[in-house]
TrEMBL record:
<protein>
    <submittedName>
        <fullName>Class I SAM-dependent methyltransferase</fullName>
    </submittedName>
</protein>
<dbReference type="InterPro" id="IPR013216">
    <property type="entry name" value="Methyltransf_11"/>
</dbReference>
<keyword id="KW-0489">Methyltransferase</keyword>
<dbReference type="InterPro" id="IPR051052">
    <property type="entry name" value="Diverse_substrate_MTase"/>
</dbReference>
<dbReference type="GO" id="GO:0000179">
    <property type="term" value="F:rRNA (adenine-N6,N6-)-dimethyltransferase activity"/>
</dbReference>
<keyword id="KW-0808">Transferase</keyword>
<dbReference type="InterPro" id="IPR029063">
    <property type="entry name" value="SAM-dependent_MTases_sf"/>
</dbReference>
<feature type="domain" description="Methyltransferase type 11">
    <location>
        <begin position="45"/>
        <end position="134"/>
    </location>
</feature>
<dbReference type="InterPro" id="IPR020596">
    <property type="entry name" value="rRNA_Ade_Mease_Trfase_CS"/>
</dbReference>
<dbReference type="Pfam" id="PF08241">
    <property type="entry name" value="Methyltransf_11"/>
</dbReference>
<comment type="similarity">
    <text>Belongs to the methyltransferase superfamily.</text>
</comment>
Length: 259
């Protein structure tokens, strides 16, 4: 994905900020703990914080959190949900914090939107020595048969290459932060996956998938046709046709330590 496409997709979420806040899942607490495990302290930057899904999990674990988000509508939802959190406008490429201000930088479903050539040095700058960088992604567990079927029906705009465990492993295996000269900014990344789930109805799952970036920028006729296929599939499956169900998920983490 080139930078122009990345910018277009990453800037699409503001139009769906309220739905994003209501329907996007939180993050498995075990995954967040693992992300922070080797950090030298609990001063944490939630970068690309969106409406505060990851921010809330960090607060619950006792972290001293500052949230940074570039989209005004998303930032408004975050401040409404978490009025006690310091929440600032800014981006991964221009972080509004001083050098060495945090012990960990976490990004929830956001690290792939960053321009790493610029964001890498910025994240290293705000991290204390030995600080941790971690990206977290909520993915659907397509090891479950009906979830695999949903991924096929939905198409890549709704369930993309980082939205299932196998795809996530492949997409993030080579993700790294650039070095400066001969000295790498971060050590070798580690990957880990943690079981997760979200209570859903067919309607709320369709609404959630409609907040994916690829869906938000899709022409309206194509978008409605895609959502119609998803609704029909969920109505046809005994697991999802009636009442609430648990959507099988994993929270996947890519973690690296500042050199």
């Amino acid at each position: 994905m080139d930078q122009g496409d990345r910018t277009l997709l990453s800037s699409s979420f503001g139009a769906a900020a309220v739905a994003y806040a209501e329907h996007r899942p939180d993050y498995a607490r075990t995954a967040v703990r693992w992300a922070l495990k080797s950090a030298p302290g609990l001063r944490v930057l939630d970068l690309g914080a969106g409406t505060g899904k990851l921010t809330a999990a960090l607060v619950a674990l006792g972290a001293d959190v500052v949230a940074v988000e570039p989209d005004p509508a998303m930032l408004t939802e975050l401040r409404r949900a978490l009025p006690g959190v310091r929440a600032l406008p800014g981006s991964a490429e221009a972080i509004p914090l001083p050098d060495g201000a945090v012990d960990a930088v976490l990004a929830g479903n956001a690290l792939h939107w960053f321009d790493m050539a610029v964001a890498g040095p910025e994240m290293a700058r705000v991290l204390a020595p030995g600080g941790v960088l971690a990206g977290l992604w909520n993915v659907m567990d397509d090891g479950v048969e009906w979830v695999a079927g949903l991924a096929r029906v939905s198409g890549s705009a709704a369930i993309g290459p980082r939205d299932t465990p196998t795809g996530w492993r492949a997409e993030t295996a080579g993700m790294h932060l650039p070095g400066t000269g001969t000295a790498a900014l971060f050590g070798s990344p580690e990957q880990a996956e943690f079981p997760h789930g979200q209570r859903r109805t067919a309607d709320s799952l369709v609404t959630t998938l409609a907040t994916r970036a690829g869906m938000l920028v899709m022409p309206e006729p194509e978008r409605e046709a895609t959502l119609g296929r998803i609704r029909a599939y969920l109505a046809s499956r005994p697991e999802t046709a009636d009442a609430e169900f648990t959507l099988p998920m994993q929270t996947c983490v890519l973690r690296a330590r500042k050199s």
